[in-house]
Amino acid sequence: MLNVREATQFDESAVLAVWTSCELIRTHSDPKEDFRLALQTPSSTILTLELDGLVIGAAVVGFDGHRAWFYYLGVQPEFQSAGNGRILVAAIEEWAIKQGAPKAMLMVRKTNSKIIGFYERIGYSVEDTLVMGKRL
Fold first, then answer.
1. What's the CA angle centered on 62, arms 61 and 64, to 5 degrees?
2. What secondary structure, in 3-state letters, does the chain show?
3. In which band, very low, low, confident or very high, does the pLDDT at 116 lie, cut at 50, 70 and 90?
4. What does the pLDDT look like over 14-71, one tens digit per residue?
5. What number of CA atoms fall less than 13 Å from residue 14's CA on the CB side?
6. Beta bridge partners of 72
């Protein structure tokens, strides 16, 4: 049975295993710290997708007061291409609506054509926006 729920501190290793198997972790990020911050910040959380109690997918979601953003969305490779990513995105969108967000946003590396295609198939589009950043 599939279930979506908010993660707790006890889900850290399972969520990190999803992110690792989906190759979402980069050397300049500390996924453990990202996990903990997402749970500690009042305007963010981590949603998990479980199959019979096993975490098979997860994503960080947050609301900045204007838009909902989601990051680290991943589904264990053996559970991909079965609609599980769509279920997790739908849960993110539902969470965002409950927060009052009029729009959901995400960032994808330009070279990740597989995931860009996934998001386009479920209604997301490339926006005419340049994202800028500064490492602090």
1. 155
2. CEEEEECCHHHHHHHHHHHHHCCCCCCCCCHHHHHHHHHHCCCEEEEEEEECCEEEEEEEEEECCCCEEEEEEEECHHHCCCCHHHHHHHHHHHHHHHHCCCCEEECCCCCCHHHHHHHHHCCCCCCCCCCCCCCC
3. very high
4. 999 999 999 999 878 899 999 999 999 999 999 999 999 999 999 999 999 999 999 9
5. 17
6. none
- The two beta strands, 68-75 and 2-6, are unpaired
Read off the amino acid at residue 44. Answer: S
Distance between CA 26 and CA 33 in Å, rounded?
A: 13
